[in-house]
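Section 3.1: Structural characterization of target chains.
Under the original work plan, the team committed to producing a structural model for every single-chain target entering the pipeline before any wet-lab resources were allocated. The record below documents one such target. The sequence was received from the expression subgroup and is listed exactly as submitted; it comprises 110 residues.
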Amino acid sequence: MPEENSLEKREENLSIHIFAVSAALVGVCLTVIGLLSISEALKKIQNIGDELIASDAMLFLVTCVLSYMAIRTKSKKRRLILEKTADWLFLAALLIIVLVAVLIAWEYLP
C-alpha cells in the first residue's frame, strides 16, 4: 500500500511539472513565431516554421489541459490515462520544437 501511494504521488508530481512546463512552452512558441515574423534572414523557412510552431503551441496547450485534468480528477484510472496521454503529447511537442530549432540553425549555415 505505501508503494502504491508513493507511485501515485510521483505521478501527480509529474503531472504538475508537465502542466507548468507546457504552459511556459506555449509562450516560447509564441515568441518564436514573433521572431520568425520579423526576421528577414529566415524567409525560406518562415512559412513552415510558423506553421510548425503554431501547431506545437496547440500541442503544448493540449498537454497543459490534460495535465490539469489529471491533477483535478478523482478517478485513478482516468488520471493514469490522462497522465500517459499528456506525457506522450508533451514528448511529441518537444520533438517538434527541436525540429524547428534545427531548421533555424541550418538556415544560418553557409
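The chain has one domain: 2-104.
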